[in-house]
Design a protein that fits this description.
By secondary structure, this protein is of the alpha/beta class. The chain has 2 domains: 267 residues, Spore Coat Polysaccharide Biosynthesis Protein SpsA, Chain A (Alpha-Beta Complex); 122 residues, UDP N-Acetylglucosamine Acyltransferase, domain 1 (3 Solenoid), CATH 2.160.10.10.
């Protein structure tokens, strides 16, 4: 660290991930595949490593098996650097036997683990956001202002702040008001930034803006312990409002791409946006890379295809297919005549052997991947899905809800669940 204080980072793994269901049916939210080869958790971890922070705790409690595998296979540090990514799942103790009750409760229960490592500051991060941020800047501001808590904030139009905590700040960026997820238009307008803060913002706006919490906090170690010495369960709803007027709370304004990808629609849109020639979030950068598991897969093989604005993951086999505005994940198999448009396909965890394929054919089960002459629109196809020949999938004009085994429409997106079997000839 270039700052003067040692830091530990805490990534909130989230609850059941109901807003991302069925993508979280068999995995926790941080383990959901992203952008063809990554996992959501790779974003905050990479931001930490690129910021010189290598002591990272990941707090989670639901469906953690795939997350454990990913972390163990990806983030291995040398002995001399003292770095680690440690998963802390909810556990029964003499004091409690239930699940984490909220973000603050999760951190409270793990304070004893943090104490084993010297630190002055605790950086609390959300595990379901897509952004690139140098945390050294917020930490250095925190130290410079002698803040007790610093909250990262992004300026958003008042029409785009639904579901976010909003703050009003003084000209020196100290926070004088914080409201969690307000709905009253009058309250929202009262929290709009003033002229002095507008002048600080590099990007002009014709609409009034508010400073929305990004769910990123820097706490002094002692203050965090003091703030959690109670039964409050959530940072945004209880802890932060309870500290206002009593402690030094400051805002750190972040200007850059930031997207909460905690819903199926937001997750889908963020992935499809990555297929643009110049996306708002760029994985193709020499500096500040996003790290993930090195799988040593072969290069993708493409044969007589039409591909337009697409991301193709390693080790894929694509034959005589049309792919437009799609993210195609690792080990994906697209057979002759496949036509995909606006599709996020997560790929597969394995390749099928010829013997396994022959056995599936004998049983009438489609092979992993997408069969011949399939047409898919506006969909997410989760890992290891088996889609037979002559299948048509399109959510247009259909209501949200369960469609059939392994297929649902969520937020207007058709979702094929992990490992689902879609028989040949299926039309949705």
């Amino acid at each position: 660290m270039t700052t003067r204080s040692p830091v530990v980072a805490v990534i909130m793994g989230g609850g059941r991930g109901t807003r991302l269901y069925p993508l979280t049916k068999e995995r926790c939210k941080p383990a959901v595949p992203l952008a063809g080869k990554y996992r959501i958790v790779d974003i905050p971890i990479s931001n930490c490593l690129n910021s010189g922070i290598n002591r990272i705790f990941l707090l989670t409690q639901f469906n953690t098996a795939s997350l454990h595998r990913h972390i163990q296979n990806t983030y291995n540090f040398d002995t001399f650097g003292g770095g680690f990514v440690d998963i802390l799942s909810a556990e029964q103790t003499e004091k409690t036997t239930d699940w984490y009750q909220g973000t603050a409760d999760a951190v409270r229960r793990n304070l004893t683990h943090f104490r084993n490592y010297p630190h002055d500051l605790v950086l609390v991060l959300s595990g379901d956001q897509l952004y690139r941020m140098d945390y050294r800047e917020i930490i250095e501001q925190h130290i410079r202002t002698s803040a007790d808590v610093t909250i990262a904030a992004i300026a958003l139009p008042t029409s785009a702040i639904e579901g976010l905590g909003l703050m009003r700040v003084n000209d020196d960026l100290s926070i004088n008001s914080f409201v969690e997820k307000p709905k009253d238009p009058a309250v929202i307008q009262s929290l709009a930034v003033g002229p002095a803060i507008e002048r600080l913002l590099k990007t002009p706006s014709t609409e009034k803006r508010c400073l929305a919490s990004m769910g990123i906090y820097v706490f002094k170690r002692e203050l965090l312990q003091e703030a959690l010495d109670n039964n409050m369960t959530d940072f945004g709803k209880e802890i932060i409002p309870g500290l206002l007027g009593k402690k030094r709370l400051f805002s750190h304004i972040f200007e850059g791409y930031w997207e909460d990808i905690g819903t199926v629609r937001a997750f889908f849109d963020a992935n499809i946006q990555l297929t643009r020639p110049v996306p708002s979030f760029n994985f193709f950068t020499q500096t500040d890379p996003i790290y993930t598991h090195a799988r040593y897969l072969p290069a993708t093989k493409v044969n007589l295809c039409t591909i337009d604005h697409a991301i193709i993951g390693d080790g894929s086999l694509i034959t005589q297919a049309r792919v437009k505005r799609c993210v195609v994940g690792i080990r994906s198999v697209l057979r002759e005549g496949v036509d995909l448009e606006d599709v996020v396909m997560m790929g597969a965890d394995f390749y099928q052997s010829e013997a396994d394929t022959a056995d599936d054919v004998a049983k009438g089960i489609p092979s992993v991947g997408i069969g011949r002459n399939c047409h898919v629109r506006t969909a997410i196809i989760d890992k290891n899905a088996r889609i037979g020949d002559n299948v048509t999938l399109n959510p247009a004009g259909k209501p949200n809800g369960h469609v059939r085994d392994g297929i649902a429409i969520v937020d207007g997106i058709l979702v094929v669940s992990k490992g689902a079997i879609v028989p040949s000839g299926t039309v949705v």
